[in-house]
């Protein structure tokens, strides 16, 4: 690739890194976070880093050992995490909604007593009902019906053979993994910028390569230790 053709690659990587940071910062600031998002955000980073590192390795712009190490660590971590989630359901596929727990927000909205309410009339049970002529509350029969429905649902949940939905824990990447991702983006940007403008010096890139390799290995060993102790997703 000619030197002048690296300019668009630098611009694309800059936009990708900036948008990724802005997306996470806005989501945390506005409170628009979810369990599924806690998995998708680091997984998206890993896929991006794996793809670019593998490409730079194939172009011989990065050492082959580093490309293999990064791709092996990230791909195995994704596979093992998905496997852990699958094992929570006893090795049976529960469906996309249950597996990724993507219907939590809808359930929370429905049960919040706002706008639409729920189909069984259980919403807004905390609102005081007007009293009738006999001094009772008109809302009491409805509330008793709601409690009976909840008891029946609980009995069905506790019935033999019922398989409860496994709650998906929130993903919390280790600090060493976050440092590794930042160094990986820095190395990728440095390699592309070096091909375009000749900076940073090759010595700086060699140092970044060693740092990425060391943190990749440390992160992989840390996650393997958590896996052996059964705490990978806790």
UniProtKB/TrEMBL annotation:
Ranges of Basic and acidic residues composition bias in the record: 147-160
PROSITE patterns per the UniProt record, alphabetical: CDP_ALCOHOL_P_TRANSF (PS00379)
Record's subcellular location: Membrane
TM annotation in the entry: 48-72, 175-196, 208-226
Keywords: Lipid biosynthesis, Lipid metabolism, Membrane, Phospholipid biosynthesis, Phospholipid metabolism, Transferase, Transmembrane, Transmembrane helix
Renumbered residue ranges of the record's region Disordered: 111-167
Source domain of life: Eukaryota
The keyword Manganese is assigned to this record: no
Recorded family membership: Belongs to the CDP-alcohol phosphatidyltransferase class-I family.
Protein name per its UniProtKB record: CDP-diacylglycerol--glycerol-3-phosphate 1-phosphatidyltransferase
Organism: Monoraphidium neglectum
Upper lineage: Eukaryota, Viridiplantae, Chlorophyta, core chlorophytes, Chlorophyceae
């Amino acid at each position: 690739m000619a030197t002048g053709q690296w300019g668009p690659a630098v611009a694309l990587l800059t936009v990708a890194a900036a948008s990724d940071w802005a997306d996470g910062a806005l989501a945390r600031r506005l409170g628009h976070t979810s369990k599924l998002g806690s998995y998708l955000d680091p997984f998206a980073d890993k896929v991006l880093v794996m793809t670019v590192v593998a490409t730079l390795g194939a172009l011989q712009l990065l050492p082959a050992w580093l490309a293999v190490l990064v791709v092996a660590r990230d791909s195995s971590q994704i596979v093992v995490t998905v496997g852990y989630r699958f094992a929570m359901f006893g090795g049976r596929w529960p469906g996309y909604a249950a597996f990724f727990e993507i219907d939590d927000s809808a359930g929370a909205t429905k049960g919040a007593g706002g706008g639409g309410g729920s189909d069984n009339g259980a919403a807004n049970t905390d609102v005081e009902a007007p009293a009738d002529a006999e001094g009772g509350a008109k809302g009491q029969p409805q509330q008793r019906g709601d409690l009976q429905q909840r008891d029946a649902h609980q009995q069905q949940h506790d019935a033999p053979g019922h398989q409860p939905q496994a709650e998906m824990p929130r993903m919390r990447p280790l600090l060493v993994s976050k440092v590794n991702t930042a160094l990986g983006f820095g190395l990728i940007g440095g390699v592309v910028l070096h091909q375009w403008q000749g900076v940073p010096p090759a010595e700086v890139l060699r140092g970044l390569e060693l740092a990425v390799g060391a943190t990749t290995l440390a992160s992989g060993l840390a996650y393997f230790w958590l896996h052996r102790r059964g705490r990978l997703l806790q």
